[in-house]
Amino acid sequence: MDTAIQKLKAVELWREGYHHHTNAFALAGGDCDREAVDELKAAVSYYTESIETFPTAEAYTFRGWAYQSFGRTDDAIDECKRAIELDPEFGNPYNDIGAYLIHKGELDEAVEWLEKAKTAARYEPRHFPFMNLGRLYAQKGMVLKAIAEFEEALRLAQRECGDPNSAASISKQLQSLRATLN
User: Fold this and answer.
1) Among 3.20.20.140, 1.25.40.10, 1.20.1250.20, 3.40.50.2300, what is the CATH number of 1-113?
2) CA torsion angle 48 75 129 154 (round to 10)
3) Is residue 2 packed enough to be buried (19+ CB in 10 Å), middle (13-18) or exposed (0-12)?
4) What digits encode the pLDDT tens for the residues 133-167?
5) What is the Cα–Cα distance from 34 to 119, expressed in whole angstroms?
6) Residue 71 above 80 pLDDT?
7) Are the CB atoms for 122 and 90 separated by under 8 Å?
8) pTM of the entire structure?
9) In the chain, how many H helices and how many E strands?
10) What is the pLDDT of residue 9?
């Protein structure tokens, strides 16, 4: 099979995995937890098949995200590092590593990864690493730095994605942080 066809097939498989992944999140937390787990397992299977067909940074990153959902944080980080090896300009795995390190309580180590995500050439939604850094700095009691990160996240969310839910969530976090200064 020629490379272009392999890549197209891999993207189709990745999209099918993503479809199952989003279904899993839609089902999670309700009475359908078993179905959510099954959907997540299907997502991992499609991501794996995509990688076997033609490895992409997206498939590795999203398989890592699925692994994280199963509590496999170190495996998730390894998947993101594989993604970065394939495409160092893809920002999502840098952000995800930062988020996973925050989850592990390794805040200082997370900063470097989130800063790389902020400057990655190819990344959407661009406001996520700013939000994660804002949360990180808030956890560390660095309120002014947290506010600066959330202000930039809000600016980017309003400009680039037009997602009113993200903007509202960021605004709420900013209000909360600013209230601690009074």
Assistant:
1) 1.25.40.10
2) 70
3) exposed
4) 999 999 999 999 999 999 999 999 888 766 678 88
5) 39
6) yes
7) yes
8) 0.90
9) 9, 0
10) 93
Q: Where are the domains of the chain?
A: 1-113, 124-182
Length of the chain equals: 182
Q: Which of 76, 84, 77, 75 is nearest to 55 (CA)?
A: 84
In contact, 125 and 161? CB cutoff 8 Å:
yes
- The residues with which 90 forms a beta bridge, in sequence order, are 122
CA distance 89 to 181: 37
Contacts of 43 (CB under 8 A, 6+ apart): 17, 18, 20, 21, 24, 62, 66
Query: What 3-state class would DSSP assign to 154?
Result: helix
Among the four given CATH numbers 1.10.3470, 1.10.10, 1.25.40, 1.20.1300, the one describing domain 124-182: 1.25.40
77-93 pLDDT, tens digit per residue, is: 999 999 999 999 999 99
Could you give the residue ranges of the DSSP H alpha helices within 28-141? 33-53, 57-69, 73-86, 92-103, 107-119, 128-139
**The domains spanning 1-113 and 124-182 adopt the same CATH topology:** yes
Q: What is the residue-averaged pLDDT of the chain?
A: 92
